[in-house]
C-alpha cells in the first residue's frame, strides 16, 4: 500500500518511527552522557569537583572506546521507533477527535501533547528502563532480550515498570510544554516567515526553543527517573528524591 493512500494515523506512525530512528542514531551519545552524569552521585566523594559533559565524553572514549558512546542504541531503537510512532499517531487521533475544525489553544496543546506522551510512555516503559541501564555502565547486559530475561528472573516483573511515576512526571509535562511552545511560537510568526522556503528552518528553530524550555522544566523529574531505573532496589519516587538531595 502506498504511503499516500494510507490512513493519516498510520502515516503519522510511520513518519514518527522514521524520525525516531534518525534522532536515536544522532543523539544517542548525548543520551548516554546525560545518564552517566545523572548517576555520578552514586560514586562521588563529598566535596569532589563536579564533572562536566566533555569530561564524561573523554572518559568513556578512553576507558571503553569511541563506539561505546552508542551503548544502549539497541534498546533505544526498540523504544523510540515504535514509541515515537505511537506518540504521533495518538497525537493525530486526539487532535482529529477533539480539534477537527480549529487549532488548540495553549492550554489545550499542553493536554494534547501530554496525553499522547502518556500513552507512548506507558507502552514503552520496559524498554526505557533497559535503555537507562545500558547507558549507566552499571550493568553488562548482552542484548535487549537478555536484559528483559535477567530483570524478570532476578527482580521480577515490577522492575520492568520501575520509575513509572517519575517517567510520566517527566514525559507528560515535557511533551505538553513542547507542543504548547512549538505551536504558539509558529502562530506568533508572520505568514511570510513560516512559508516556504523558510519553513524547514522555522520549524527547526521553533522545535529547538520548545525543546529547551520543556527540558528546563522537566530536568528534575528526569534525574529522579534515572536513579530509580538504575537502582535494583525498587525505590519509590520519594526515596529517589531523598537520596538525590541528602
TrEMBL record:
InterPro entries: MCP_dom_sf, MCP_transmembrane
Keyword Lipid metabolism set for record: no
Ranges occupied by Solcar repeats: 7-97, 104-188, 198-246
Gene3D superfamilies: Mitochondrial carrier domain
UniProt keyword Plastid, yes or no: no
Location of this chain's protein in the cell: Membrane
Cross-referenced Pfam families: Mito_carr (PF00153)
Main location: membrane
UniProt topology in membrane: Multi-pass membrane protein
Keywords in alphabetical order: Membrane, Transmembrane, Transport
Xref: PANTHER family: MITOCHONDRIAL GLYCINE TRANSPORTER, MITOCHONDRIAL GLYCINE TRANSPORTER B
Family: Belongs to the mitochondrial carrier (TC 2.A.29) family.
Name of the protein this chain belongs to: Solute carrier family 25 member 38
Amino acid at each position: 500500500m502506498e504511503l499516500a493512500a494510507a490512513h493519516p494515523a498510520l502515516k503519522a506512525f510511520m513518519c514518527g518511527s522514521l524520525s525516531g530512528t534518525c534522532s536515536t542514531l544522532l543523539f544517542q551519545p548525548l543520551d548516554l552522557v546525560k545518564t552517566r552524569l545523572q548517576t555520578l552521585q552514586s560514586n562521588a566523594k563529598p566535596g569532589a569537583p563536579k564533572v562536566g559533559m566533555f569530561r564524561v565524553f573523554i572518559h568513556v572514549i578512553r576507558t571503553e572506546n569511541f563506539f561505546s558512546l552508542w551503548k544502549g542504541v539497541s534498546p533505544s531503537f526498540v523504544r523510540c521507533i515504535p514509541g515515537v510512532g505511537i506518540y504521533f499517531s495518538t497525537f493525530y487521533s486526539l487532535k482529529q477527535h477533539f480539534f477537527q475544525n480549529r487549532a488548540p489553544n495553549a492550554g489545550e496543546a499542553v493536554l494534547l501533547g501530554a496525553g499522547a506522551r502518556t500513552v507512548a510512555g506507558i507502552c514503552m516503559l520496559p524498554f526505557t528502563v533497559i535503555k537507562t541501564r545500558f547507558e549507566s555502565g552499571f550493568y553488562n547486559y548482552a542484548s535487549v532480550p537478555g536484559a528483559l530475561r535477567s530483570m524478570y528472573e532476578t527482580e521480577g516483573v515490577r522492575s520492568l515498570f520501575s520509575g513509572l511515576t517519575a517517567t510520566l512526571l517527566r514525559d507528560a509535562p515535557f511533551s505538553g510544554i513542547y507542543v504548547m511552545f512549538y505551536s504558539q511560537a509558529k502562530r506568533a510568526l508572520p505568514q511570510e516567515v513560516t512559508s516556504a522556503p523558510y519553513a524547514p528552518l522555522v520549524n527547526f528553530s521553533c522545535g529547538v526553543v520548545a525543546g529547551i524550555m520543556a527540558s528546563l522544566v522537566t530536568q528534575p523529574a528526569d534525574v529522579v527517573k534515572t536513579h530509580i531505573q538504575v537502582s535494583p532496589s525498587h525505590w519509590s519516587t520519594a526515596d529517589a528524591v531523598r537520596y538525590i538531595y541528602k
